Amino acid sequence: MKILARLRWLLRARQFALAVAVAASLGCDDAEVRFGPPGGLRIRTDGAVGSAKACPLPAGASGAECPEWADSVFPTIFDSEKYRCSAKGCHSGTPSAGLALFPGDPDKSYESMKAYENFGRPYISDLEPAKAYLLCNLTDEPKFSLGTVMPKNAALIEETDLVLLGNWVACGMAKEGGTPVMGTGGAGGGS
After folding, report:
1. Averaged confidence pLDDT in the chain
2. Could you tell me the residue range of the domain that residue 65 belongs to?
3. For 79-128, how does the pLDDT look when each residue is reduced to its tens digit (9 = 90+)?
4. Alpha-carbon gap, residue 69 to 85, rounded angstroms
5. Are 132 and 191 in contact (CB under 8 A)?
6. pTM of the model
7. Could you tell me which of 28, 17, 138, 4 has the C-alpha nearest to residue 77?
8. Which helix (H) or strand (E) holds 27?
9. CA-CA-CA-CA torsion sign (157, 130, 54, 191)
């Protein structure tokens, strides 16, 4: 009797597993969803969560003033004790997440951020700022959020610091200098 009960249970478990597998495979056939490596960027091309579309500029960022990367943006946001982006265990040197930041070295950090991509979409780009997903990685707004919301081990970036970063993005994400090159739509948005 125990054997028969066990066989029935195994048959039900197998049917359940098959149903789950079929349901999962149907979701994977969605041409609008692409998945990256585990824990990596997830892009929806249909404008839903994790969209390849607009990463809007923060409120108050216009690009009228262009902050410098090395003197303002890097030390305030990426190399600060407040957000700890370049700290050991986060993005310092060669992190497991792939994006490397180098404490005290804005030039090397800039080049690393510029070289980092997921599915052909750069993290930052002075050549195609509208494609960059930096601002989408720093928001907890589900409509625009891409990847894990950063900073992971600290509070979200404060509004004044987001405006500083947004102005740098609006000015073209240049390592040196910068000119407003984008409309008010933000990185990924255009006008």
Report:
1. 73
2. 43-170
3. 888 888 888 878 887 765 678 889 999 999 999 989 988 766 788 888 87
4. 15
5. no
6. 0.66
7. 138
8. helix 2-28
9. positive
Mean pLDDT of 128-147: 76
Asked if residue 51 belongs to a domain, the reply is: yes
Total count of domains within the chain = 2
The string of DSSP codes covering 152-179 is: TTSPPPPHHHHHHHHHHHHTT--SS---
DSSP letter string, 99-138: --B-TT-HHHHHHHHHH-EETTEESS-SS-GGG--TGGGG
Instruction: Indicate the residue type of 56.
Output: P
The CA distance from 39 to 50, in Å, is: 13
Domain match, 10 and 100 both? no
Query: What DSSP designation does 56 have?
Result: P
Judge whether 186 lies within some domain: no
